[in-house]
Design brief:
The structure is a homodimer.
Chain A: H1 9-16, E1 23-24, E2 31-36, H2 40-57, E3 62-66, E4 69-74, H3 84-98
Antiparallel strand pairs in A: 1-2, 2-4, 3-4
Helix pairs in contact in A: 2-3
Chain lengths: ~100, ~100
């Protein structure tokens, strides 16, 4: 993945149509979404599932969470920008919440 | 806890002497520490332990983590500032890392 350029803003916006709940950063550097939960335990449980998914996919988001919320930030560190894999991870995170 | 005022900056600084790896925010609103790890799995494992501690203590930090790091932010939401309990949680988090 190291040698390829990050996705352009245009390409990222096209892929974002598949995951409309996610936000693209101004510089098209990353995508993020905030998820809401009833309490800390529910947020923690979701974060654990994201962690398992990350290890399975070999692709690791940055995660901030606490009572009632979790924020997932995705980009590809090797290219310091967005890769199609980030959108695949985001779609899989969506499946975790609706499962 | 709702009726009492948050700790003053002076009192927070005194308590901070017990947990010198933690940083006090400028307005003495919260304390935080960044922990470093070898990879994502180690950071996740620490975060899970913090989550269990938080549920046990009934006191919930905000946590940001990813590959090789976890940041713990502590303050008492009811008083929107620091309470002695935040320093107790921080000390217990320290014990998790040295255990």
């Amino acid at each position: 993945m190291g040698g390829i350029p990050p996705l352009t803003r245009y390409d990222a916006q096209q892929l974002l149509l598949q995951i409309p709940s996610w936000q693209l950063s101004d510089e098209a550097h990353d995508i993020r979404r905030r998820f809401e939960f009833r309490d800390f335990a529910e947020a923690m449980s979701f974060v654990e599932k994201i962690g398992e998914l990350a290890e399975r996919e070999g692709h690791h988001p940055d995660i901030c969470f606490g009572w009632g919320y979790a924020e997932i930030l995705l980009y590809s560190h090797k290219i310091d920008g967005l890769h199609e894999n980030d959108f695949i991870m985001a779609a899989k995170a969506e499946q975790l919440i609706t499962a």
